[in-house]
Amino acid sequence: MVATLKPTVEQQSKVVITWEALPANFVLEEEPVESTAQPLIAGALRESLELVGYIQPTMLIASNLGICATMNDDLVIKAPDWLYVRSVMPLTRITDRRSYTPNLEGEVPLVVMEFLSETDGKEYSAKPTYPPGKWYFYEQILRVPTYITFDPEDGHLEVYNLGETDYQLQPQDVNNRYWIADMGLFLGVWQGKKEGRSGNWLRWWSQDGNMLPWSVEQLEQERQRTEEARQLAEQERQRAEQEYQRAEQERQQTEQERQRAEQERQRADRLTEQLRLLGITPND
């Protein structure tokens, strides 16, 4: 899909963007999550990054967090389904963010994702007038380098990179994945089950092609490694037992040979004694 209602040069020139702190008493609108899949997909994206130690204290990775900008003195807040900011200023008096204002609290998000809803064109709206559409907000106001849309129903994934003026649709690689340069990771679609949901998921792959695991997969990998180690130890125990049994058989065989040799020696001694009693001296 492509965005519609592209702003004219005249419209863009009239837009004045400022970055102002959200008032402490400002009441944020609460938009309901449009499906149970959205928070699961967003959480899974963060989980795999956290497990491999990718997330640093200076980063901001969040879902449904309001991004604020002031457009011609009117406050605009958009809450993407998933966002990544490489560097933010540390919080001082609070522990949790209510919102995020780029250029005031840190860098502009490098990656923003929207999971497509049932509202046609919502994530592709380039409406330039207040309140602006999401596409226009990310492309023209925030200038987010990478904008991603994903349809959990059919697994359709689109990745747009910001050119000089607007977003350009990026091609997939031979593995049907997209290289997200600002994160140093590949992004693609994976089908499977997690947390009781079977369907399409977004997954990360490292630069060398390894998929970043979820905790349940990491536990399964650890279980498999433990089982392989147990099997290897059991094989070693069985080999040691077989070696012991072979050594014991050889010891017993040697003892039997010694006993037979001793019996032969005793029989020869008795024969020699009998011959001596008969006055016969055995030949040497």
Number of helices: 4
Assembly state = single chain
Please give the number of β-strands.
13
> How large is the radius of gyration?
37 Å
Ranges with pLDDT <50 over ≥5 residues? 1-11
Give, in spatial order, the strands making up the sheet with the most strands.
2-5-7-8-9-10
The residue-averaged pLDDT reads: 89
Q: What structural category do the secondary elements indicate?
A: alpha+beta
Largest sheet: 6 strands, mixed
Cα(first) to Cα(last) distance is 111 Å
Instruction: Estimate the global geometry from the Cα principal axes.
Output: rod-shaped
- The percentage of residues in β strands lies in 15-25%
SSE string, helices as H and strands as E: HEHEEEEEEHEEEEEEH
Proportion of residues in helical segments: 25-40%
Descriptive overview:
- With 284 residues, this protein is an alpha+beta fold.
- It has four helices and 13 strands.
- The protein has helices at 9-13, 37-51, 134-142, 215-277, and strands at 17-18, 60-62, 66-71, 74-78, 82-85, 99-100, 111-115, 146-151, 156-162, 167-169, 178-180, 185-194, 197-205.
- The strands form three sheets. The protein has a six-stranded mixed sheet. Strands 1, 3, 4 and 6 form a four-stranded mixed sheet that branches.
- β8 (146-151) and β9 form a beta hairpin.
- The chain is rod-shaped and about 140 Å long.
- The N and C termini lie far apart (111 Å).
- Residues 1-11 have low confidence and may be disordered.
